Amino acid sequence: MATLFYDQDADLTRLQGRTIAIIGYGSQGHAHALNLRDSSMSVVVGLHPGSKSRARAEADGLTVQNVAEAAQQADVVMILIPDHLQKRVYDEQIAPHLQPGNTLMFAHGFNIRYGQIVPPEGVDVSMVAPKAPGHRVREVFTEGAGVPGLIAVEKDTSGNAKADALAYARAIGCTRAGVIETTFAEETETDLFGEQVVLCGGVAGLIRASFETLVKAGYQPEIAYFECLHELKLIVDLIYQGGLSYMWYSVSDTAEYGGYVSGERIVPEATKEEMAGILQEIRDGSFAQRWISENEEGRPFFRQRRQQEHDLLIEKVGTDLRRMMPFLDAKEIKQQD
């Protein structure tokens, strides 16, 4: 069993008197910055001059500077911008200002794991990764609780990198729920695998395929939408609350029996072999290189596939149905890069 660290294992005084630069003010950035501030930490937000987030961060009462300025005055630099932007921003605006004794932090290990960012000697390198979207990290913190998190240490020059990471985790609320120690490699590889095989790729693929199967067989798209997408939340909530056993306990016996006899047909050995292949591509770096190259080439596949997903029948049907259900607080987005 993994060891969990809680508030009593983390010393907030380790960060007192040190300036923490939060680079980025998106989903995670705003949550980290505000939670740190509310934990009496000295925080500055680093953004590029034209950032749309600048006004929001200033309205939230935070000090906002250009990235280079924030990095120059900081003792701890937490990078919370998208993976594909980190290397350029780090090389141009952060690395020149890192000094021995500084701490460089991440919430995801991609750029360290795949060698896109190579920190200098004399700097601690660590990770604090809340296991929730940023809005939830902030919301739960304001309620007096926290979300679980991960910590990892890549370089411990000072001998205090783990203690400092735990202090940071406490300051954003993660040690209220429990923090597990991992490595940059383990966090990155399992995170990418989970996203691709289950959370984003697998679930989305299963929804698309099941919806299309019903529609092709002559069933109404609206009925297919409810059965293959809408009701998924009900099942996921049950699993979230009590695991698979609670889900089986909560559904009808017919649903439970059908799940047993059909589930393995949907995930046969061939699918498990594909999962193993995906994991291997993550571990050997070939997925990372493909994503890096995709960005360097202007994202041709990514842009085309994003538009294709946006134009699917299930998306059009879903938009219309969700407008009829005000209790959902439905969201609509404009397709953009």
Describe the 3D structure.
A nine-stranded mixed beta sheet has the order 1-9-8-7-6-5-2-3-4, sandwiched between helices. The chain is of the alpha/beta class. It is globular. It has helices at residues 27-38, 54-59, 67-73, 83-94, 110-113, 134-142, 161-171, 174-177, 184-199, 201-216, 221-230, 232-250, 253-266, 269-283, 286-296, 300-310, 313-323; strands spanning 4-5, 19-23, 42-46, 63-65, 76-79, 103-106, 124-130, 149-155, 179-182. The mean pLDDT is 96. The longest helix is centred in the last third of the chain and has 19 residues, at 232-250.
| Helical residue percent band | 55-70%
Rg over C-alpha atoms, rounded to the nearest angstrom: 22 Å
- Contiguous helical run count: 17
Q: Which spans of ≥5 residues are poorly predicted at pLDDT below 50?
A: none
User: Looking at the structure, what is the overall shape?
Assistant: globular
Strand order of the largest sheet: 1-9-8-7-6-5-2-3-4
Q: In terms of structural class, how would the helical and strand content be classed? A: alpha/beta
Largest sheet: 9 strands, mixed
Order of helices and strands: EEHEHEHEHEHEHEHHEHHHHHHHHH
Please indicate the percent range of residues in DSSP E strands (runs of 2 or more): 5-15%
Mean pLDDT: 96
Give the end-to-end Cα distance, rounded to a whole number of Å.
42 Å
Instruction: Compute the number of strand runs.
Output: 9
